[in-house]
Amino acid sequence: MEKFSPVGEKDITRAIVTEFAKQFEEYVESDCVIIGGGPSGLMAGRDLARAGKKVIIVERNNYLGGGFWIGGYLMNKVTIRHPAERVLEELGIPYSEVNRGLFVADGPHACSKLIAAACDAGVKFANMTVFEDLVLKEDGQLCGAVINWTPISALPREITCVDPVAIESLVLIDATGHDAQVVRKLEERGLIKTKGFGAMWVERSEDLIMEHTGEVHPGLIVTGMAVSTTYGLPRMGPTFGGMLLSGEKGAEIVLSKLK
Ligand code: 48H
Predict the structure, then answer these.
(1) What letter would DSSP give residue 3?
(2) Which candidate, 4, 155, 175, 195, has a CA 20 to 30 Å from the CA of 186?
């Protein structure tokens, strides 16, 4: 059997540190920073990277995919309503039609294909990294994100005080799901008023999300469930078509802004 190459511990450590630092240094200045690596953030990232933009997704967890692994109630079948099944086709995710206009796929298969598509397109990731605050300049223009390692931000202030760092971008996307964390930072500063997502009403919610996906503040686009929270729209429950198409629309808006 062929032997493994004679590479030692220090070489492995050096490879990790060097490659991480190189990428981080490069993405400190990006075309678009997306906060949140769930279905809407991954779709937006994939489309932006495919269009040749430099895009990084900041994700507080180690894993990517947000709520897209599980369909609902801890059951790993995800549902998608027409017309979003075209995304399943595009990503090569096997699915079946269980009712007219209602499609089902395996959560792990769907989610991993979406993550892979974003990676293949060239999206970079800062995982285990939490969005903490905004970089706001003239006339309230949003120009970047203040970030820290998730384990550091999770520690109580009494036992640690490690300042965050900032990364700059021309545009940001809030894809943080129910919490709408980026929009909420604007709210803390009196720049916007969020309404909180409404009760479940699937027939209305996804069309409304598509209508409202857009720029909420100069330099900030909101996608996915964060749109419901921002505008007080009904939630849709465990179905993901609106998340995928909202991410796609968010990317189109970013691209038109970057032109
Ligand atoms: C870094 C953060 C931070 C932070 C959060 O929840 P998600 O899957 O979001 P969407 O909008 O792409 O999809 C929502 C969908 O999964 C869902 O929950 C649905 C359809 N619910 C319907 C209903 O009725 O409830 O992903 C958001 C991601 C997660 O991975 C978070 O960890 C991450 O954002 N995130 N990352 N810094 N401050 N906050």
Answers:
(1) P
(2) 155
Phi-psi region of 140 (alpha: psi -120 to 50; beta: other; left: phi over 0): left
How does pLDDT run across 85-107, given as a tens digit for each residue?
Answer: 999 999 999 999 999 999 999 99
CB of 236 within 6 A of ligand 1: the answer is yes
Nearest CA to ligand 1 atom 34: 36
The single residue listed with the structure tokens 């595009």 is: 90
Tell me, in angstroms, the distance from the centre of ligand 1 to residue 49's CA.
20
Eight-class DSSP state of 177: G
Q: Say if ligand 1 is within 6 A of residue 181 CB.
A: yes
Residues 6 or more apart from 37 whose CB is under 8 A from it?
A: 45, 57, 58, 59, 61, 64, 65, 66, 115, 125, 127, 175
Give the CA angle between residues 234, 237, 241 to the nearest 5°: 95
pTM for the model stands at 0.98
Return the DSSP state at 123: -
